[in-house]
Design brief:
The chain is of the alpha+beta class. The chain contains 2 helices and 10 strands; from the N terminus they run E-E-E-E-H-E-E-E-E-E-H-E. The chain has one domain. About 35% of the residues are buried. It comes from Parapedobacter deserti.
Amino acid sequence: MMGNIKIIRVAQAKHSTLGHLYINGLFCCYILEDAVRDRKIPGQTAIPAGEYTLGLNATARMNRSYSSRYAAMHRGMVEVRGIPNFSLVFFHVGNYHTDTAGCLLTGSYWQLLDGDYRVLHSAAAYKHAYPLLVAEIEKGNDKVEVFDCCSPSGSPSLR
């Protein structure tokens, strides 16, 4: 089944991009990424708009700290796979674009501070989103669609 997981980017700031994560048509949490750029800068660029696969990565270095921090639910880092020129892109906790390293940060709400977005109550959003993402992956609904900010017509578009 396609289209169960969507990230719709809604706003761009100096170095950050704010988005919404939807699972099965319902808003799940805010997503913070680095800026969308035409040229990839390692650790400073949002993933390109498109369709990707999600999977669980139980071997990445980050997995060790999340295994102890979220022991009751952790089954591996939720990884976005198949991104050109990107690897080890995870959903994880953090507040500022400087925390992303090209990954997707979860947030319960957001603020615009000094010209950039930040997300807050990230751990609470992660604890909400993580089991929902894992459940979709286990059901075989492992595709995520990433949409850039609105097109000239005002609707989100895949680039």
